[in-house]
Amino acid sequence: MNNKGSVKDTLTFGFALFAMFFGAGNLIFPPYLGIISGPKWFTGFAGFTFADAGLALLAVIAIAYCNGNIMELFEKIGKWPAIILSFADIMCVGPLLVIPRTGATTYEMGIMPLAGKGLPIIVVVVIFFLLTFFLTVRPSKVIDIVGQFLTPVLIIALSVIIIKGVVSPLGTPMSKPMIENIFQRGIMDGYQTMDCFVSIAVGSVLMLTLANKGYSDSKQQIALLIKAGIIACVGLGLIYGGLTYLGSTVSKVYGMDVQQSQVIVNITQSLLGNTGKVILAIAVSLACLTTSIGLTSATAEYLTALFNNKISYAKVVAIVCVFATAAASMGVSGLVKIANPILAIVYPPTIVLIVLVFFKNKIKNDNVYKFAALFAVIISALTLLSTSVPAFGFVNSLPLAPIGFNWVVPTIIGGIIGNFVGASNKKVA
Fold first, then answer.
1. Can you tell me the distance from the alpha carbon of 347 to that of 31, in angstroms, rounded to the nearest whole number?
2. Which domains does the chain carry?
3. How far apart are CA 346 and CA 221, in angstroms?
């Protein structure tokens, strides 16, 4: 393969990854973070980008090392725990939360500001998921559709808003931030975007597309995906920086009680008037559509493999789109309320397994994976229960608890204990 082709493919994959990562939450969090950070907006931006783009890049590399095979990432904890955890992860970023949320957000932030509340949400989400179906039904074309056509329009729309806000700022940041521990708040918000889950989910789609383009060598595949991941994360960082800065310029206007999803809507309208509404509608709709396409394809690939191809890829895509249409009618807040408890428990062990992938040649005892993941799940479950059971409140005093990582130290301890429990060098079936 010639260098020119490699460069083109790297850029296409980089743009596709950017678009799949950049969904609704990525538009909502940074501007609000800028408001509450005020003059220290860059500190908040740094924390957000570290936890979002940083974890996403780490997951991209990890899934590349696993040849795009989700089960290879999870298999060390045992067959059934691996199936349960991977299934929970895919459901969170798939039909349970993120895919329906893309449709709901398109309505709430993209269509409703233009059409008003007279247009029912069900009409919008039906059209949205019909588009998702037709653009997803051919998995080998997903990356090209997203990377070559949809992402450039998305980037242009966002750039127009950001450049206007930088050249003609709406104001100056307040004299001091509204909150303390700004970097920690940025980390917590970045953590909640779930982009490292997205990296895992789209791994099979990425590898399928690479194979169809003639990249058969695993080292070549890994190298290209790492480069594409860096491109995507640099792009995310630039957009996050711009959006966070825009938020800081209106920090004297809005308080902490402002509705987060309306911040970017209000900023865009102030900068560009009614034209801004149209541009934002395009940006929001494309951000959500590209994420929906990527995750629907990834979910279908995973479920098709899980059921040994007994259900065709196209049928699974159709099922996911129908389910997402029904779920999206609940609205963004309803979806988040249902999925957050599940997410709080499955996220930590997933991050643990992503990190341990890089040490798989050094770890000879599978119990390291099992105990580390188990301790992460236990602490996460206790943290969730601590809101209603005071006896479990001690977990909120563990190291790194203020930034949502109270499970890290117990997980390390669990891994160490596992290393001394029944050395097992056998590969998990």
1. 25
2. 3-329 (1.20.1740.10), 350-429 (no CATH)
3. 28
Rounded distance, CA 361 to CA 161, Å? 47
Q: Would you call 181 helix, strand, or coil by DSSP?
A: coil
- Distance of alpha carbon 16 from alpha carbon 154, whole angstroms: 11
Report, in angstroms and rounded to the nearest whole number, the Rg of the chain calculated over CA atoms. Answer: 21
* Rounded (to 5) percent helix, strand, coil in the chain: 80, 0, 20
pLDDT tens digits for range 249-282:
999 988 888 877 788 888 888 888 888 888 888 8
Whether the Cβ atoms of residue 142 and residue 295 lie closer than 8 Å to each other = no
Q: What are phi and psi of 283, to 5 degrees?
A: -65, -45
pLDDT digits (tens, 9 = 90+) for 358-405: 898 888 899 999 999 999 999 999 988 988 888 888 998 999 887 778
State CA 86 to chain mean position distance.
15
Cα(238)–Cα(49) distance, integer angstroms: 10
Helices (H), 386-422: 408-419
pLDDT at 333 over 70: no
Q: Shortest CA distance to 203 belongs to which of 13, 342, 369, 23?
A: 13
Measure the CA–CA gap between 410 and 405, rounded to whole angstroms: 10
